[in-house]
TrEMBL record:
<dbReference type="Pfam" id="PF01187">
    <property type="entry name" value="MIF"/>
</dbReference>
<comment type="similarity">
    <text>Belongs to the MIF family.</text>
</comment>
<protein>
    <submittedName>
        <fullName>Macrophage migration inhibitory factor homolog</fullName>
    </submittedName>
</protein>
<dbReference type="InterPro" id="IPR001398">
    <property type="entry name" value="Macrophage_inhib_fac"/>
</dbReference>
<dbReference type="InterPro" id="IPR014347">
    <property type="entry name" value="Tautomerase/MIF_sf"/>
</dbReference>
Amino acid sequence: MPCLYITTNVNFDGVKTDPFYSEVTKAIASIVGRPQNLVMVVLKGSVEIVFGGNKDAAAYGEIVSMGGITKQVKRELIATVGSLLHTHFSIHPSRFIFKVFDINSLPLPSKL
């Protein structure tokens, strides 16, 4: 069940976010190989972010998944989400930081 969380300094008042939700959900499901009904997307706007010393449009994103994350999948997720943020909210890909995390890659807890 992948969960995408994006925080940005873009103000979403009067901005239609539904097309972004739809496109990014579809893309994540396809890239990670999970059904769309298991993809969660959280989008938080109007957050104070300074990136590179200025407050131009920027975003921080992370995706957490239970499996399905390979190096190629990471690259594709970063490129796709960055492109969608640029298309929908004018956030240039160079002003977007993205963390990809697969919880299945965590070491198993030891039995002490």
